[in-house]
Design a protein that fits this description.
With 229 residues, the protein is α+β, with helices and mostly antiparallel strands. 42% of the residues lie in helices and 14% in strands. The longest helix has 23 residues, at 179-201. The two termini are 34 Å apart.
Length: 229
Amino acid sequence: MLEELKQKVLEANLSLVEYKLVLFTWGNVSAIDREKGLVVIKPSGVDYATMTADDMVVMSLDGEKVEGRLNPSSDTPTHLELYRSFPDIGGIAHTHSTFAVAFAQAAKDIRPYGTTHADFAYGPVPCTRDLTGDEIKNDYELNTGKVIAECFAERGIDPASVPAVLVHSHGPFTWGKSAAEAAKNSAILEEVAKMAYLSETLGANEASKNIRNKHYFRKHGANAYYGQK
């Protein structure tokens, strides 16, 4: 079942290692088949070096395991909630990359200090509020997804224009049209977070809205001209 998607999810998970975003068994990537309403996700705690496409786990959007001999990632409920809340995304990645986690632990948004950020996201990458004690005690991973969706709804942020979030005290989640794009966005987010950290230590101000708009819309707008047709 979903053999091609399993292979793509495996490759996206392995790319997290290639991008040097994960250590040991940290991190996970998933993808969704919207027509079937099924999600393929990395198994929990399996070494990247030995992981195969057959190890991937197929889940329903309701959280039922449809196929797989292994337990799915412990973050599966977060992924499923994001797929339910953001119906246009096709893949999700989660890492504990150093600089993005540093901002999450400081409970700080990643501010748009320059054009590299603007090429990636239209405005700050937000950090969610802290989860309450009850939210942590009961359905922690599900509530992690809910607090991300809440953050975007309350701030009026379009998940298509800001494909990343920091979960307070935890770390980053990114998404895209596919598993590969979600993983790539994790790498971009980490680089943007590193640049922001260094910029803040030097006392930088945010880039002007004019230059930010120019860079975002030349790459993502209706009349974008970055790259090849």
